[in-house]
């Protein structure tokens, strides 16, 4: 078992030369992965995300962890093939993201941002043009009933909404226990007044919402996402918004982040947008930092990581851990973080 004092923490300087950063990474046993937003302004920044090249070059790497619930910055298949454990940090930031998702839903329904824009542009004319709607009794469709989606369902309970859920990884009994109805994506799209996307970006969810899904939505419905940009087709969403196919959209994520100022979606009055800040709160930053530290302590103590995403790697990971650090991990998870 390694003591906390035995763990040296090094930080990549993305403004430094690539040779300096590669030297740091090639000596590391664990890597808290950079985010896409961190590396976006840096030339060749994507090389610091965990892809096959990084995995091949960093032979001592035992585990990689993403900062939040999303782990699209990590090639899980490449890591598993190399015997590297992959973890995320789902849970600690769920409250922040779920509250943000609810905020976007309320903003769109009550036309809060739209009214603010009108007032700032000049004298308010016909107030009825800013007439909103209520959440009470409406149908909410949630795509992905993980920590964020589950908390969002709880937050929406006072509005008496019917909640439909699309999530291939939960069963009917689980859904009933949470007071939601499990349906296929087509049914969810057709029936929902508000669609909230809270799933991770994976090979299964990339492009999940395209022209067919937007065309099937009610003209009065709203599309809201705090997931990842590539889960939906931005061009298809734009066309649905300008044609009146759907009423509006609340977006915290984009294909390119930070989004360009000339992104067509940002020109639309029926779009409320934030720059991937749903999970950024004072409380979430503290909770994620604590959870991150505890997970790394568990890893280097030879325990199973609390949020292991590729459990099939465990036998090979244990062999590599023993070969590199001289101890063999145990399957006991004594550091689970809520």
From TrEMBL:
Lineage summary: Bacteria, Bacillati, Actinomycetota, Actinomycetes, Mycobacteriales
Pfam family, one: 2-Hacid_dh
Keywords of the record: Amino-acid biosynthesis, NAD, Oxidoreductase
Domain named D-isomer specific 2-hydroxyacid dehydrogenase catalytic: residues: 53-310
CDD domains for the chain: PGDH_4
Matching SUPFAM superfamilies: Formate/glycerate dehydrogenase catalytic domain-like (SSF52283), NAD(P)-binding Rossmann-fold domains (SSF51735)
Top-rank taxon, per record: Bacteria
Listed InterPro entries: D-2-hydroxyacid_DH (IPR050857), D-isomer_2_OHA_DH_cat_dom (IPR006139), D-isomer_DH_CS1 (IPR029752), D-isomer_DH_NAD-bd (IPR006140), NAD(P)-bd_dom_sf (IPR036291)
Domain D-isomer specific 2-hydroxyacid dehydrogenase NAD-binding: 102-278
Family the entry assigns: Belongs to the D-isomer specific 2-hydroxyacid dehydrogenase family.
Family annotation (PANTHER family): D-ISOMER SPECIFIC 2-HYDROXYACID DEHYDROGENASE FAMILY PROTEIN (AFU_ORTHOLOGUE AFUA_6G10090)
Name recorded for this polypeptide: Hydroxyacid dehydrogenase
